[in-house]
User: Fold this.
Amino acid sequence: MDANIVLLIPANNPTLKIIPILNSIIESLSNQIQIVMVNDHTDIEFMPVIEIVGALESTKVITSDKSKGKGNAIKFGIEYILQEYPKANHIVTADADGQHSTTDILNIINQVNSNSFVIGVRSFPAKVTPLKSYLGNQVSRTVLSLLARKKIVDSQSGLRGFSIEIAKQFLHIPDPGFAFETEALLWVLQNTKNMAQIPIQTIYFDKNQGTHFHPIKDTYKISKIAVAYLRRLIKNKGNATKTKK
Assistant:
């Protein structure tokens, strides 16, 4: 298929909630999109979901040969897309747990054609947002907003769209896990002005018990990345000053 946009879904223990979402996207876009799901070391009890997805039209399931982690799964998927879909010019990533609605995914797909980078941002209403999810995102988005001097509404959203050129840059990000997405966002903030933050629904199931995000450990990693980013900015600014002299 020569689709211009590929929907990339990193999947570690995906739930059945993803099936109707993918069916709706396929029905809406027909042959305009290709879907690639990366099986990221899924446990055996969740493999039936992987098999159902693999049987869907316009969908390919690939199994990651990298160590477990969302960052590694996304990079593995990007490498596959670059090789197998050379005519693709944009990639959209979405999570496999059903927390991104069909409407929101389609909106990001539509928006990515006119933006180098698009991120779906949630509003985190107290009634539906688990405390650990709210606190983790609040810390990271506050730090990133201060560093970037730009209001970041949601730093941890997995619903993103970006050009193939940016995808190639993401392959150089070393982190294998959730912090990969923070590093990717920092790279975008530093290297492109054509970024859009698009409001999406805030959806959590069972108080987000199924998340692989660890609030303390992953927030600590994200904070370390932010500090390293700040040091690079200071160093680059210092080098630029020396050059002018």
About this structure: The longest strand covers residues 5-11. Residues 129 and 153 are 15 Å apart (CA to CA).
